[in-house]
Amino acid sequence: MKRIAIDMDEVIADFNSKMVPSFNQRFAKSITHDDLDGHTIQQLFPELKSDINIMIGESDFFADLSVIVDSQSVIKQLSERYDIFITTAAMEFPGSFTAKFLWLEKHFPFIDPMNIVFCGNKSILHADYLIDDNARHFNGFSGEGILFSAPHNAQVEGFRRVNNWQEIAALFLR
Amino acid sequence: MKRIAIDMDEVIADFNSKMVPSFNQRFAKSITHDDLDGHTIQQLFPELKSDINIMIGESDFFADLSVIVDSQSVIKQLSERYDIFITTAAMEFPGSFTAKFLWLEKHFPFIDPMNIVFCGNKSILHADYLIDDNARHFNGFSGEGILFSAPHNAQVEGFRRVNNWQEIAALFLR
């Protein structure tokens, strides 16, 4: 059975829909989703990077993220034909471990907790495919990286790209 | 550079030296380390398994474990010649994530946090070697499993076995 590793933030968890209003409220700004084209908020406001990371690192920041459209139904179908792992780069925000684990338990109860991986360097993953919004994680990854579109990666090239979960279904569930 | 994945509990963190007295105190027992020969405490007292797991799952249980003799100095030397990852099966005790992360930061500050992995099913690891006290983690692992001796695995056969960190040094630092 082929194995698919799937990232969390901006792939199954809608990070930016919380990030943008949280950032605007905390730092008295008024950015929109369009401003993120090609950038992360930290790249747009490098002088605020450490304060932004403090906000993200708060233990409950990840607790109430929305689920990315169609990710639940497509992953449920994928899990019948593939070995599915959720692989999230939690090491930059160690305060987020428990919230991320509970979020997965709540929204993806059909994923075996033993198939959840918190890591930093994703080259450690042994999988056939890695679906991720950060192309840097494909560096050294032994399988095929599949780039999930997010505002910050709009200009990234060189990888197979999917724009939504229906495109992933078309790719893997034909 | 070859990659070595190293487990935490009973390999670099001395779990049993805390577990035995903690168990005796909490459950009014008087077991010794010798009683563990070939078993975990949960196997010796199956009727207490869920209560024992509650104790282990408390957020600070892992915070003050001692360091296994010679693990720091040998891993420091290994890290100059190998790509080292710490790979710990934290998913059974999600309350332990932060304590384990802080423990590693305190006792193994030379390990890049990006090279820490919390997982359940270790077949997801892409490494040449996995040093672990639980042989079940070698099932499906693509590299070579090296069994680190612990009381519970005394009767396990079929894998290269090391009894201490000096034996690991002899194996990898010749």
Fold blueprint:
2 copies of one chain form a homodimer.
Chain A: E1 3-6, E2 13-14, H1 15-27, H2 41-44, H3 49-57, E3 66-67, H4 71-78, E4 83-88, H5 97-107, E5 116-118, E6 129-132, E7 144-148, E8 160-162, H6 165-172
Parallel strand pairs in A: 1-4, 1-6, 4-5, 6-7, 7-8
Antiparallel strand pairs in A: 2-3
Summarize, please.
By secondary structure, chain A is of the alpha/beta class.
Strand numbers in spatial order across the main sheet of chain A: 5-4-1-6-7-8
CATH topology title of chain A: Rossmann fold
Number of strands of chain A: 8
Taking the sheet with the most strands of chain A, its summary is:
6 strands, parallel
Walkthrough of the structure:
- The structure is a homodimer of 174-residue chains.
- Chain A has 174 residues and is of the alpha/beta class.
- The first copy, chain A, has one domain: Rossmann fold (3-Layer(aba) Sandwich), CATH 3.40.50.
- Chain A is 30% helix and 17% strand.
- In chain A, the strands form two sheets. A six-stranded parallel β-sheet of chain A has the order 5-4-1-6-7-8.
- The interface between A and B is medium-sized, with 29 and 29 residues.
Considering the chains and any ligands shown, give keywords for the structure.
homodimer, globular, Rossmann fold, two-stranded antiparallel ribbon, alpha/beta, 6-stranded parallel beta sheet, 6 helices, 174 residues
